[in-house]
Write a structure and sequence with these properties.
By secondary structure, this protein is of the alpha/beta class. It folds into three domains: 4-164, P-loop containing nucleotide triphosphate hydrolases (Rossmann fold, 3-Layer(aba) Sandwich); 170-242, Helicase, Ruva Protein, domain 3, CATH 1.10.8; 250-368 and 411-442, Zinc Finger, Delta Prime, domain 3 (Up-down Bundle), CATH 1.20.272.10. The chain contains 22 helices and seven strands. The strands form two sheets. It has a five-stranded parallel beta sheet, sandwiched between helices. Strands 6-7 form a two-stranded parallel ribbon. Helix 11 packs parallel to helix 13 (236-242) and helix 14 runs parallel beside helix 16. The termini are far apart. The model is unreliable at 1-10 (pLDDT under 50).
Length: 442
């Protein structure tokens, strides 16, 4: 069982950040992650049985990935070695592996190698681990904030069990703060009084990040004078001063970017303007490129609304031009205008489905020849020389007929790609097309 944790804290407790001093040492002390650590859950069983070879913990910052790795080390019989992929090279990895090999030979002890920020390792650095995992020289735990399926090698993934940690709930963060007041590792020499309002504020503004929550609380404690009774009082005003700005978790190139954009478009498609505005606000607040948002609106206008309300495309394009004209912060207004318009508009993906079906036929089916009567003059002459009749070559000009329509084939086969709905203005289109179809069949 590793004693590294205790050595780190004992080095200089006064200078150690509160979040580090209060790291859980046992599974019983861990707050949150019940989907992984509750009784009977796979990860808990694997830890208590001391039966695992490679684990990858992934999730947002401040959810306890490093903490959990150290808890695993304390709960098992293995030594614990750490590397941070931001500054560790291949030589450092090999050094840790050789050290593990030596301990295994000399004392029969197994070693857990923990690599934080694992996604920072190159492919070659990740590959260095593979043969030693196969041999059982090391037991491996990796931690990453990135999607492991994108950031890590398939070979490493196939040898590991993946566990996703979730952001802590506000109730869990509040419980963490309350437990701090009675924890001898926190402030044993202080009498701290934390109001319910202050605790709730810390929890809300921390956005599921335990480290951020404890750091803000620590700042409040260290900068607040004692009152006449000798107590350090942390009320709502102190909490607001200690954590003024909520740091929304958002990576403009990672999962949060794609997940939030997906939620935004799906909310528009689902006709929920409230949800669409929330996801729009999250993207804008987090620094997403507004032109990316405008492009998504233009796409949605045609993909999800289409001819049920053709004005939607104009509104989306106008919003894009308006944003380019006024910029931020006022540019949020036309983007919100377009978002609400699209979310509340009637929906149809008939045109989108139609082009996909037509493209599928072009790619996979037999290439259809242009009917003789639709060809250019030169091509018609060639068709006539090949024996085509005058009737086959005769093109009828639609504007010469009533309603600007004349029954005439435009495809060699009677394929249908555009299947209009009865939503919004598309119902009128459907009625008109059915009328034309009846004339053609008649």
């Amino acid at each position: 069982m590793s004693d590294l944790w205790n050595q780190e804290i004992a080095a200089d407790p006064a200078q150690t950040p509160l979040a580090a001093r209060l790291r859980p040492r046992t599974l019983a002390q861990v707050i949150g992650q019940s989907h992984l650590l509750a009784e009977g859950k796979l990860l808990r069983r694997a830890i208590l049985a001391d039966q695992f070879s490679a684990l990858i913990l992934h999730g947002p910052p401040g959810t306890g990935k490093t903490t959990l790795a150290r808890v695993i080390a304390n709960e098992t019989t293995a030594r614990f070695e750490t590397l941070n992929a931001t500054d560790a090279n291949t030589a450092a990895v090999r050094e840790k592996i050789e050290l593990a090999r030596s301990w295994s030979k000399l004392r029969g002890e197994r070693t857990i190698l923990f690599v934080d920020e694992l996604h920072r390792f190159s492919k070659n650095q990740q590959d260095v681990l593979l043969p030693h995992l196969e041999e059982g020289i090391i037991r491996f735990i990796g931690a990453t904030t990135e999607n492991p399926y994108f950031a890590l090698n398939n070979a490493l993934l196939s040898r590991s069990q993946l566990f996703q940690l979730e952001s802590l709930e506000e109730e869990e963060l509040t419980a963490l703060l309350r437990s701090t007041l009675s924890d001898e590792r926190a402030y044993p020499d202080l009498q701290i009084e934390l109001s319910n309002e202050a605790a709730a504020h810390f929890a809300q503004k921390s956005d599921g990040d335990a480290r951020k929550c404890l750091s803000a609380f620590e700042l409040a404690v260290l900068t607040s004078p004692k009152n006449k009774e000798g107590k350090t009082v942390i009320d709502l005003q102190v909490a607001e001063e200690s954590i003024q700005q909520k740091a929304v978790r958002y990576d403009a190139k990672g999962d949060e970017h794609y997940d939030t954009a997906s939620a935004f478009i799906k909310s528009i498609r689902g006709s929920d303007p409230d949800a669409a505005l929330y996801w729009l606000a999250k993207m804008l607040h987090s620094g997403e490129d507004p032109r990316f948002i405008a492009r998504r609106l233009v796409i949605s206008a045609s993909e999800d609304i289409g001819l049920a309300d053709s004005a939607a495309l104009r509104v989306a394009l106008d919003a894009q031009r308006a944003f380019d004209f006024v910029g931020m912060p006022e540019g949020r207004i036309p983007l919100a205008h377009a978002t609400v318009y699209l979310a509340t508009a009637p929906k149809s993906n008939a045109a989108y489905a139609g082009i996909n079906a037509a493209l599928s036929d072009v790619k996979s089916g037999k290439t259809l020849a242009v009917p003789p009567h639709l060809r250019t003059g030169t091509r018609k002459k060639l068709a006539k020389q090949s024996g085509a009749s005058e009737k086959e070559l005769s093109y009828q000009y639609a504007h010469d007929y009533e309603d600007n329509y004349v029954p005439q084939a435009y495809l060699p086969e009677g394929k249908s790609y555009y299947l209009p709905t009865e939503n919004g203005l598309e119902k009128r289109i459907k009625d008109r097309l059915e009328h034309f179809k009846s004339l053609f069949q008649g």
